[in-house]
Fold these 2 entries.
Entry 1:
Amino acid sequence: MLAEDLVASAPLPAALRAADAGKSLRLIGESAAGRPFDHPVEPGTSIRILTGGVLPSGADCVVMMEDVQLSSEVVTVPAGLKAGQNFHAPGADLLAGERVLPAGVQLGAAELGLAAALGLAELSVGRRPRVALLSTGDELVEVGKSPGRGQITDSNRWALLAALREAGAEVRLLGIGPDEPEALRRLVVEALAEADVLVTSGGVSVGTHDLIKPLLESLGDVHVGRVKLKPGKPFTFATLRDRKLAFGLPGFPVSSLVTFEVFVRPALRKMQGHSQLQRPTLPVRLGYEARATADRTEYQRVTLAREGGELVASSTGSQSSSRLMSLAGAHALVRIPPGNRGMGKGSLVEAMILALP
Ligand code: AMP
Ligand code: MG
């Protein structure tokens, strides 16, 4: 992400050269890539120029080899030549002082190439938000270890790590925190010395082992402790000292990723100066009958297919918040407004696009 305007310091490509004529001209030299011809081209003379060669002073057009007659040191060029033909004029791509890229642009392949072409060895860019990521729960075990009775593999860490990186964050993994208030507090306080943002998963429902909300309340201000969203009802958001943010995501794998998409990713993008915070949305045609939840907006996971100029959504199957298969390979989250009626097959709904088919 670029932090300030990039301004062209020199014309691109570099100054060029041409031959004048309609007659027979004396060939007086050559300009090749990296080996310019250093004398002016006087009337009645011309030089050979190769691709990438600099146009010498006096010359104002280039004629193709196939359009000339060449005999030893004399070249006969056709009539009707125009000044400026067949070469890239200085500033044809960019003029000095022209704004090349506005601040806030994402630096991709073309943008980085452009900066290098302008000779800029260093760019001033926005810092990535530093995020500390913590999974909580006594039942969690490290991936690769076989879970014992009542245990479950910590999959959220890896899902959220990928989601955080895609959103531009620099991630510090805190591993698994126990369901024990003091131990959690120590982990979190220590991590917040470095991090701009804390992201946790698990421990936000209302129950004896749900310790994240009281912890965040003791460290700052909890603004959201519950949202009318399915999946993701117990999503928690707090602001902490030094403008730090904390997101307590639900433990259920799909709930944590959906609330990440809806709330965390836009916040991280805002911190990086993006103006487009949400994923793009498009209207799509429901290819199935969607039931609604009375009091909560539902984000259902779908695949999309193009049918006659429209995008048609198919459900990824059971929408259980523990079923990651409902999100794996999904192209979009379709937004089903709360209510009792649901949305019939063929309705147009808003879809948050994750990937187009
Ligand atoms: P909690 O919000 O802590 O009550 O967790 C809700 C559900 O999500 C429980 O079934 C947890 O076992 C599960 N869960 C919590 N954390 C993780 C995690 N890191 N990876 C996978 N599942 C998790
Ligand atoms: Mg838990």
Note: DSSP finds five helices and 20 strands in the chain.
Entry 2:
Amino acid sequence: MNDAFTVELLTPAIGAEIDGLDLSQPIPAPVLGELRSVWLDRKALIFRGQRLTPGEHLAFSTLFAEIDKYPFLNGIDGYPMIAPILKLPEERVNFGGMWHSDTCYLEAPAAGAVLHALELPPLGGDTLFANMALAWETLPTDLANQVEGLRVVCSSAKKGISKTREARLNESRDESSPEAFVSVHPVVRTHPESGEKILYVNEAHAVHFEGQDEAASEPLLQKLYAHQRLPEFQCRIQWSEGAVLMWDNRSTHHYPVNDYHGHRRLLHRISLKGDVPF
Ligand code: SIN
């Protein structure tokens, strides 16, 4: 361990609050190495009271991976790689408002994301995270035997998740993005850094197993989703203004809670470039 920062675990399964680091300042290599291993281990890290400029947000994110532009949405003014995650007081739908893992419809989905909280409702608007390595480890053997070796077709265009993006895309669609992305990935992937096995399907984007149609795939998919939603895999992040949250998108699902109608919530998001899952 190091004496540059402290780590407070959020639940046995996932998440940690990190204290002692100013993310606007350079981070020495040994401290960064330690932070990276805590990130891989705990999968979602929250740093409070940061209030970064967009340039500082980008500089911090670049310490972990190359930056990947989020498809579909234009970035904030002057920063195409920073996507605004916004809900307005008069809106009822929140961006990404269901359990999902980001951009698994791409050939190389995001490795992670770094979110910065700028405007928050007085109460609510938390984000839940779930550990999908633990979901794989605890999957009943009969289900594990059925899914090992299967591949899943993932689409950006499933109805539920598409609806959560509508308002933002009407406002600021990136016209260079195609209408939809589709990719096929192993249902059980191996984490490229930690070597963990991960249950890599998510309800927002999974359409069917390769070689099976939707009707044939649905019963097994539903069993996997039910397992993935167990509270024992989760933590709940309560935001505070200026907080920075980074998650490992390869090994987690997240769920932004939509319980703050009538209030504005604005976060800035940077996506980290990932690998082709294997
Ligand atoms: C997302 O990137 O899915 C949004 C996360 C959030 O709004 O908490």
Note: The radius of gyration is 18 Å.
